[in-house]
Design brief:
The chain is about 35% helix and about 25% strand. With about 260 residues, it is of the alpha/beta class. It has one domain: Rossmann fold (3-Layer(aba) Sandwich), CATH 3.40.50. Strands 5-6-7-3-8-9 form a six-stranded mixed beta sheet, sandwiched between helices. Helix 7 links the parallel strand 6 (about 175-180) and strand 7 (about 205-210). The chain is globular and about 55 Å long. About 35% of the residues are buried.
């Protein structure tokens, strides 16, 4: 179970005007602005639940995922995932989670994908029999066999994203954080990824938190949605709660953003 209570996180950002003169001034005096990325964020997610975490750019989605995965420590508030505090118990915590950032990679760029998988096996200390079983299942379900021996830099975006998802699941995590997992993918690759995530949740009861701007992903994969805006949870409900008439999911969510002024 994932429990966040009153979590706050802010950043100090340097502000300056354009121009060489203004750049020189910052060598001696800097003006800072405090950005409140998260403000009193609270929610609970049950085991095996699939949740869409949506909001406009800069709303606080990625900061939340980084706190949940133990990368960031909040200034205040509490967070417990399966009884562990992510940033205090990182080694134990990461054994139970998988993270996919659509705009970042965990694959080594110039080596074959299978070599990256072998290195992750050692990093997570995955027993050989479990690793082999997971590799066979992931290779079959995500159709990876053709390019396991290909360097990551030579893969198409869709092929690489399928490998990224496989890499995050080699150690059989109980929770999967997906941050823009289908960004830039073609229709065929998107459908393959969605089908795999649904099957993963159905068979293994993996808890999934999905952050994305692709509302079709949200509609296909989740029933519950959390809306965050300006660092605050604005809504916790279902797609049925926000749908109106024959409007598309994109139109519905755009209207939702306007109604909350985010």
């Amino acid at each position: 179970m994932i429990i966040m209570e009153n979590v706050c996180k802010s950043y100090k950002v340097v502000k300056r005007n354009a121009g060489f003169k203004e750049a020189c001034k910052t060598l001696f005096r800097r003006d800072y602005e405090t950005i409140h990325a998260l403000s009193e964020v609270s929610f609970t997610i049950a085991d095996g639940e699939m949740v869409g975490y949506i909001g406009p750019n800069g709303a606080g989605k990625s900061s939340t995922i980084k706190i949940l995965s133990g990368i960031l420590k909040p200034e205040s508030g509490t967070c417990h995932i399966n009884g562990l505090v992510p940033w205090e118990n990182r080694i134990r915590h990461v054994r139970d989670i998988g993270v996919v950032f659509g705009q970042r990679t965990q694959l080594w760029w110039d080596v074959p994908v299978i070599d990256s998988f072998e290195l992750l096996k050692d990093i997570y200390s995955i027993p050989s029999e479990i690793y082999q079983s997971n590799m066979e299942d992931l290779t079959r379900l995500l159709d990876l066999r053709e390019f396991l021996k290909t360097p990551a830099r030579q893969l198409s975006l869709g092929q690489r994203m399928r490998c990224e998802i496989a890499a995050s699941l080699l150690h059989s995590p109980k929770i999967l954080f997906l941050d823009e997992p289908t960004i830039g993918l073609d229709a065929v690759s998107k459908l393959a990824v969605r089908e795999f995530i649904l099957r993963l949740n159905e068979i293994h009861k993996t808890t999934v938190i999905l952050t994305t701007h692709d509302m079709q992903d949200i509609e296909a994969l989740t029933r519950r949605i959390l809306l965050i805006g300006k660092g605050k949870i604005l809504m916790d409900g279902t797609l049925a709660d926000i749908k109106s008439g024959n409007s598309s999911i994109d139109e519905t969510v755009a209207e939702l953003y306007r109604s909350y002024d985010v």
